[in-house]
Write a structure and sequence with these properties.
The structure is a single chain. The protein contains 4 helices and 27 strands. It is an alpha+beta fold. Strands 3, 4, 6, 7 and 8 form a 5-stranded antiparallel β-sheet that branches. The N and C termini lie far apart (181 Å).
């Protein structure tokens, strides 16, 4: 009985292998496979089912393999697919048919297509392209209370001619926009771009595609594409309305969520309390917008808060900017009182030194010289003649006084 069972199992396995071999021969690859650029860093892959393929294969799928600029693969039941990738160095992909039944999977041969690299001289495309986004309150519509700005910077290609001029475009979803506000280097070449308002959604999961091309009279400028994940370039604003209340040795700190399209529960915070007297830093990671701390009563404290979008609402990015420091403490009050004394005393001392210097160096006389009065003639001198006669002396005494008004000099001549 056992040998008979083994023979039957072996026969069944051989029959299945033969059937699979026949089915594989009948599984044909797709046809008319094309790749077409449909936007910045975006292509459309399209193919048709093989017309000779039996239509009974209702479980037919397709396996797409991206060969360049980076390797990737995925499966789909559709014959049309979009893919996002930088295109300046070209794009290549392959596709094949797949049949899945029960635990058996069959695959056809591959068919391939490619998109040629963009033309341009090597070393002329931009380098070190970096971009960042920031959310601000919108003043244009109530339907969109927040708007996202975009700022990008780059370096000129190392082999780009001096007359090279660059132009930047971005695409987010189906929206594409060209930059209108550029910053320039000393040779008047565009090296930065600013979009005060964009259609970028900071809550979205789509990638931001940035394209920079250029022109020159001396060379063909090679374009450059780069993709950015929104969470990785989003600069989270600092928390708003940070308030600090000091009651004896208790410090009560509270704040509001940053300007952002994300709701309150989507933020985590980091609190920094700095004792400026001894240099000690207290760092706290918080999920709420309140904190109470104990402090001494002889130091000054600096309080700052920053935020980050939590992983429950979006892929976590980097921490945002710190809020402006708020200072509290008695030492600060003593410092303010000390300033009220030091500043007036210093001002008086400076005035005293200045007046002494002016007196020693005769600065006031040089700056404000006295106006001399006109000299008087000798004829204008005042002559006073007094005669005194003594009864017992016949000597006549004449006193003549000369007064010169100009110099206030008095000359006396006595004759006996």
């Amino acid at each position: 009985m056992l040998p008979t069972l083994v023979i039957l199992v072996g026969s069944w396995a051989t029959l299945q292998a033969d059937l699979l071999s026949d089915k594989k021969a009948l599984l044909l690859p797709p046809v008319n496979f094309t790749i077409k650029a449909t936007g910045i860093a975006q292509v459309r892959l399209h193919w048709d089912p093989n017309p000779d393929q039996e239509q009974s294969n209702v479980d037919l799928q397709y396996h797409v393999k991206i060969n360049a600029p980076q390797e990737d693969d995925y499966s789909t039941r559709k014959t049309d697919s979009k893919y996002v990738a930088p295109l300046h160095d070209g794009f290549a992909a392959s596709v094949r048919s797949i049949l899945k039944r029960s635990h058996v999977s069959l695959a056809s041969s591959w068919v391939s297509a490619e998109l040629k690299a963009s033309p341009g001289s090597s070393g002329t495309s931009v380098m070190n392209l970096t971009c960042s986004t920031n959310t601000v309150v919108s003043s244009h519509t109530h339907l969109r209370p927040y708007q996202v700005s975009l700022r990008c910077t780059w370096l000129v290609g190392k082999d780009a001619p001096e007359d090279t001029q660059y132009f930047l475009y971005y695409r987010f979803g189906a929206w594409t926009e060209e930059c209108q506000e550029y910053s320039r280097d000393t040779l008047n070449r565009n090296t930065g771009c600013w979009f005060p308002r964009t259609f970028i959604n900071s809550k979205g999961f789509e990638q931001l595609a940035v394209h920079v091309n250029g022109s020159s009279k001396h060379a063909a400028i090679k374009p450059f594409d780069q993709l950015f994940a929104p969470h990785s370039i989003d600069q989270v604003n600092p928390p708003r309305n940070v308030t600090v209340k000091l009651e004896e040795t208790s410090l009560y700190i509270q704040w509001e969520k940053p300007v952002s399209a994300f709701p309150v529960h989507c933020f985590n915070y980091e609190l920094k309390i700095h004792n400026t007297k001894n240099g000690y830093f207290q760092m706290e990671k918080l999920a709420t917008n309140k904190f109470i701390s104990k402090i001494d009563d002889v130091s000054t404290y600096s309080i700052q808060v920053r935020a980050v979008v939590s992983s429950s609402c979006r892929v976590s990015g980097s921490w945002g900017q710190w809020s402006q420091p708020i200072y509290v403490g008695k030492e600060k009050k003593l410092l303010a009182e000390w300033r009220l004394i030091v500043f007036p005393a210093t001002s008086c001392f400076v005035l005293l030194i200045f007046s002494l210097i002016c007196r020693v160096c005769h600065i006031w006389i040089k700056l404000f010289p006295s106006v001399p009065a006109p000299k008087s003639n000798i004829k204008d001198l005042l002559v006073v003649t007094d005669y005194e006669k003594a009864a017992w002396n016949e000597t006549k005494i004449e006193v003549v006084s000369y007064v010169e008004e100009a110099g206030f000099e008095v000359m006396e001549n006595s004759m006996f």
